Predict the structure.
Amino acid sequence: MNLPKDPMMLYSVINLKLRDMYSNLDALCEDLDVNKEELVAALAAAGFEYDREHNCFV
């Protein structure tokens, strides 16, 4: 899947998918064939980190 390059759009899309479709970040990355480390790094660069307990980036 082509994910948005803009960090705010990426944040929004990923959190929407985590909320509506996936039980955790690993499932999302596997299903969408996304490199988890790259995704986490891209969102971390924008100031977000994954919250496992709430299954979202904050």
Q: What stands out?
A: Residues 7-20 form the longest helix (14 residues). The longest strand covers residues 50-51.
